[in-house]
Structures are given as structure tokens and as C-alpha cells.
Amino acid sequence: MNAELHQGAQAPVAADDVTGPTRAWRDRLAGAARVGRQAWLQIFGIPDYERYLAHAAARHPGEPLLSRREFYLASIDRKYTGRGPRCC
Q1: Lowest-confidence range among 17-21, 34-38, 47-51, 53-57?
Q2: Cα–Cα dist 74/56, whole Å
Q3: What angle do CA 21, 27, 31 make, to 5 degrees?
Q4: Which of 10, 4, 2, 84 is nearest to 45 (CA)?
Q5: d(CA 72, CA 78)
Q6: pTM of structure
Q7: Residue 84: partners with Cβ closer than 8 Å, 6 or more residues away
Q8: How far apart are CA 78 and CA 26, in angstroms?
Q9: Nearest 5°: CA angle at 85, between 83 and 87?
Q10: CA within 13 Å, CB half, 47
Q11: Using alpha carbons only, what angle is made at residue 56 by residues 52 and 58, rounded to the nearest 5 degrees?
Q12: Alpha-carbon distance 13 to 19, whole Å?
């Protein structure tokens, strides 16, 4: 290979080292992906444990949290029986 072709080449940049407009674009894309994922889960009635934890910490501090298994079992019960506690 010709060494002249590689003189101006730069070393690859790690994803965490990205700054400026590229980082802003990447952050916007990541935010849009999170919102899209949450919408997808809600549309199809798939429970989101992480969202439950954030909600419980913000609205019900000090109350005991359900385990992941308990959360999914309660979600399935609520979905198929049409009953269950409604919050907020």
C-alpha cells in the first residue's frame, strides 16, 4: 500500500470520546429510542419494570417495592382479569 494515502488518516475515536454536534446527535437519537421503546411497550401492554421503579421512587417513597417477578405476575393478573390496583 502507498504510505502517502495513510498520512492524513486519524486513529479511530472511541464512542465515549465523541464531542460536539456528533455527541448531541447521538444523545438525541438515544433519547428518541428510549421514548419509542416506552411507547412500544405501552401500546402492546408489555410491563416495564424499570419504569415502575422510577414511578414508585418518585410518587411512593418509603413504600416497599415489588420484586421483578411479583411485578410481572401482578401485571399479567391486571391485564387478563381487568382488575387490580390503579395508581395515580
Answers
A1: 17-21
A2: 15
A3: 145
A4: 84
A5: 10
A6: 0.51
A7: 74, 77, 78
A8: 37
A9: 135
A10: 18
A11: 120
A12: 10
Query: Which pLDDT score, from 0 to 100, does residue 54 have?
Result: 92
Domain-wise residue ranges, the chain = 20-81
Q: What is the DSSP letter of 73?
A: H
- Cell numbers placing 43: 401500546
**What are the pLDDT digits (tens) for 46-78?**
778 888 999 999 999 999 999 999 999 988 888
Alpha carbon dihedral 18, 23, 27, 32, in 10-degree steps, equals -120
DSSP letter string over 10-72?
A: -PPPPGGG--THHHHHHHHHHHHHHHHHHHHHHHTT---HHHHHHHHHHHSTTSPPPPHHHHH
- The label of the residue with cell 401492554 reads 45
